[in-house]
Amino acid sequence: MDHRKMAALHVMEKLEQAGYQAYLVGGCVRDECLGKIPQDYDVTTDARPEQVMEIFEKVVPTGIRHGTVMVVEQKVPVEVTTFRTDGKYSNHRQPEKVEFVQSLKEDLKRRDFTMNAMAKDRNGRIIDYFGGRKDLDEGIIRTVGDPSERFQEDALRMLRAVRFANQFRFVLDPATEEGICRHRDKGGCLSVERVTAELNKMFDADTVSHGFRLLFQTRLIHFLPPFCRWDLPDEAVKAMPQIDPIKNRTVRWAYLLCLCGTRPDQLAERLRQLKLSKKENKEISACFSLASRWKGPDDSMSREDWCRILLEEGPEAVANAANLARLTSPDGQWIPSDSQLAEWWNGLKIHQARELKVSGRDFIRHCGWEKGPWIGKVLQVLLEQVALGHLPNEKEILLKEGCKIGALHQK
Q: Whole-angstrom Cα distance, residue 224 to residue 196?
């Protein structure tokens, strides 16, 4: 048994021994019904947060205001939340207050979709008040109760509905889809961070075209920040299936930016608006910029040209850009395949400047010049020459050739 599930079951057992109810709840129950391994196991209970904290030694009050604490059991963090009902929601995002209750059904009733509103006891019995198992079997995303109420409470649920439909290749229940269309303008209340977090999850799925078809079909994407400020041609969604075979979040983001008509001079600002991580921005920018340098078959780039780019940019960045260029070029067949790029990379004699038998310090001592940018230029040229087999990786030869190259860069 998964150690995370064992930890959750131990938490449930201790709660029950103390006289409380305890169930697995939400996504872990859904995933097990689908035959998938859950990422984590959440527990719901009628014990109040302070009562949970009395039972367990290691507890972190992560969201105690909303009834959630993190119990560390067998070195595994398990989220434990008290049965609750939600009060009035503020700004279509979160409840202003919650009320703790003793009824599991009341707790499950506040949840977003039927497939996420199931619970499971320690013996494996599923508690399903709202037809979640049937909707899972039929591949339907359906809200618990009135879609309008659910989406007015938390506008992110509209985007989550689309993300789940994409992830599981499900359809939206007609009333749920109608609710999204009716309340899509409330998507403007969401923060960019919440939107991009959901889209990142969608980009991590096996395919993405189904989700984007729903985003355009419901027009929800036109109200989500920052896309509401961009020019989004409806034709873009027709091109999305091309990205499905490429299981790479960086390339998928870069392709979406291309479909949105992003020009090179707009890229930095649009990435800033998306509020992705610095690492993601750097990778997407490199992918976008590098792919835009390759104009077409007339470039007639040789194997050595590609190897130089591989050495300069790195194999992952080049593979990402090559995938993007194949998608966006009128004739992308001239761009080497991933396997061809990998073969060329593996065929190089060395891959990094630190593998050279000389260092920058060697050149400063041997050539007698001050430290400066010339060192990096010399090492890059020598890296290419040795990697391609044009020079042996021998110190004396590299010092001699390096000084010749360095002389060209001295003022």
A: 10
